């Protein structure tokens, strides 16, 4: 096992590079840049979800699975189970969450 050459680079934390390339909304900002964004009203929430995911991944004991793979699984669960379950509509949620996640707006 070789010693990494990245250990002293900015953003290198506990052996895990701060890689935000997999994320759509969260890019490592300290403050949510989408608060009050009327063009992308859902973006602030999606940014928060991705930020929470990022920190939970960094805190994980087992990081043998690559970030992109874990993120893909997390995002699928978020879009297919978590977000539809938050809908107050008794007739069911007609939101296309996959498309909404990409645009930051409610899409049907």
From TrEMBL:
Residues 81-108 are annotated as: Disordered. Residues 99-108 have a biased composition (Basic and acidic residues). It comes from the Bacteria. This is Uncharacterized protein.
């Amino acid at each position: 096992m070789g010693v990494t050459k990245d250990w002293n680079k900015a953003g290198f934390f506990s052996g895990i590079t701060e890689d935000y390339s997999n994320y759509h909304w969260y890019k490592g900002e300290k403050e949510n840049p989408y608060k009050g964004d009327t063009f992308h009203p859902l973006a602030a929430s999606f940014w928060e979800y991705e930020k929470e995911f990022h920190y939970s991944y960094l805190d994980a004991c087992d990081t043998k699975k690559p970030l992109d793979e874990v993120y893909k699984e997390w995002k699928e669960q978020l879009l297919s189970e978590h977000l539809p379950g938050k809908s107050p509509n008794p007739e069911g949620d007609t939101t296309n969450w996959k498309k909404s996640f990409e645009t930051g707006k409610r899409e049907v």
